[in-house]
Amino acid sequence: MNDSPLPAPGLPAGFDAPDEAAVKAFRDSILAKLVYQVGGRPERASPRDWFIATALAARDHIVDDWRRSNDQTRSDDRKGVCYLSMEFLIGRLLSDALGNLGLTETARRALEGLGVDLDTVAGQEADAALGNGGLGRLAACFMESMASVDVPAYGYGIRYENGLFRQVIAGGIQHEVPEDWLALGNPWEFERSGLVYEVRFGGHVRSEVSVDGSTRMIWHAGEIVNALAYDTPVVGWRGKRVNTLRLWSARATDPLQLGDFNRGDHVGSQSARMRAEAISRVLYPGDESEAGQELRLRQEYFFASASLQDILRRHLSNHADLSNLAEHIAVQLNDTHPAIGVAELMRLLVDLHGMEWDAAWTVTQAVFSYTNHTLLPEALETWAVPMMERVLPRHMQIIYLINARHLDRARTGGADDMLLSAVSLIDERHGRRVRMGHLAFVGSHRINGVSALHSQLMRDTVFADLNQVCGDRITNKTNGITFRRWLHRANPGLTRLLVDAIGPAVLDDPNRLADLVPLADDAAFQQKFAAQRRAAKERLASLIAGRIGLRVDPDALFDVQIKRIHEYKRQLLNIVQTVALYNAMRARPTASWVPRVKIFAGKAAPSYHKAKDIIRLANDVAAVVNDDPTLRGLLKVAFIPNYNVSLAEGIIPAADLSEQISTAGLEASGTGNMKLALNGALTIGTLDGANVEIDERVGRDNIFIFGLTAEEVMERKRAGYDARAAAAASPELRGALDAIASGVFSPGEPGRYRGLVEGLMHDDRYLVTADFDSYNTRQRDVASRWSQPESWWRSAVLNTAQVGWFSSDRTIREYAADIWGVAADDS
Question: Which terms in the Gene Ontology molecular function aspect does this entry carry (predicted)?
Fold first, then answer.
């Protein structure tokens, strides 16, 4: 229907209690920014004008703390962290900045004096399109937590001009259009025109013999692209520290071939500029073509090279040489995207700074650590050797040498040919490809998983051989989320209730949520807890009506699955069970059905056709179910388009049931499960990723666990799994699949989903059919519990009370102590 800006969540008062002088000073600052920087007049200013003016006024407060933080770090010569990530899904920043600085009420009252509403102003901010899902949101949480626990840090990534696509659903089909989040400007960033680094591609490598007889490799690049820095301040809680998010924008060294232009080739004269600037244009360009694959490799090397050049420059500004780099800097590789940085740091140290190979390798391993986020072999990046040799010829030489020495050590340690093949950085079995996960592993002193189960499965499966050969380098650091964003700002109603019930200390210490436990059986508190949820559900119902024209009942159970669309996350299992429920409701219309709203949101990669089919199926099921009068409104299905951080902030406080139903053993961790449980949603899920740890903390009576375990999944796959037999043995599953395959939900094209269902019968690699009956049974248990409000709200309160451990502050302190060797506060 429409995709207008979402209103910001109501910003809580937090801990600030401003006096009139502070309010007046902030009001004067906003007015000055409006007049002199926005160029507006108060009587004619638009909400967007007021947003820019307010953000700039807040930014002035941040800059002073930013400078203080950087000056203190330099003067104390503190070790810091550099966090390299392809994604930083930061969302809106105004509410974070005001909240963490204690200026929310100051800004609210200042704007009220001008006849302007803060929540309306904050809702004008665009979501930065710098990420896709959990990987980018985790990076954003970690950056905020590093500032909050006083860890000096730089985040390094790419300033995507369009970022991830904006999702439009037309006729049930996902369409991708550019996300122009920078079209109206970004008041938070500072362009650093003096910080430009050359990033090289292509060309050839020649050896030169120096006067001392040593041989030096010289890379004669075929193309040079400039990396221009843009800095965004990241404010910690209570303004304790302000760190830096430094994003790189690609620029051509010669943006216009003037001779070609004057000869009339007006388009061709800008081809070099377009090729260079494509690097920072779009996050995850389609990789079905070789050109798309090459662009992804160029992106990854571009930001890794610029970031490492910047890291070395900053180090040498305070220290005489690079031999002690690891004593002052820790570099975290967030997944395999920045893994080429291992070879790049070796190139910089050996080729440019003249360090001996062994010394450079010692420094490199001591500097880097690597976070793995997947157990899916296909998601562990590999690059074709011929493309690597063409795009990064010097790096391919370095990788060959790293690999030769790595294999020599393994062979000396007793590795046979089979083991050597498994641990080699070059996969010789599939057309010779560079294994980037292997490169990151070998080049790092620590490799961590992101949940206890995931880390153990890394040891047992994808990295078992490497861990054996390289020594036990794998450790676990279970993910966390920043409670400032996902509780204080996203759910101010619940935050106020918590402060009233257990005191303001809960704002500073997430572990104080445990003080809620005695209130879980308090009927009056349960009613207050339910009331704030009801208000959030009313807001979400209004949003759904505005976005897709569907009216839903806020008193219904809101059953939510919001995440990237992928087969292993099993949105298909949820949809099939929805169809089974629909069939049952039509067959037994007089039964006591619990009103339920199934809410989906998420994007599919442009080239992931099966995921896009799942989105279409969800929308087709919604179209039939929502228009069926025989259901009397008891079941509704909503697919909300263009999922992003702001939409998540609207959905999560209103969710009653959290769908975390990935195939066990395939979800590394998840963070949506933490956000939803924190806000009091009950989880229905497999024992996968961080669900295992949520289950341990909230108690099995307060979560709905179903399905095969990771061990059972592996055994089922080893033994060979027959999906047809499973469907034949389950009438409800068979009925749902038959309805989908026969065109009940696609009457204009009856065969639309026949291939999807047949594919499931032929190769159900994610065991949708194997887990269906268990899932369906637990969904009935969910309905039964919802029919007992006292029991439901007791469990909801206990979910909020018991998940304080999942704060990203805790995670960052663990990284700081166990991996990075940096100081953090111990509060």
Answer: glycogen phosphorylase activity; pyridoxal phosphate binding
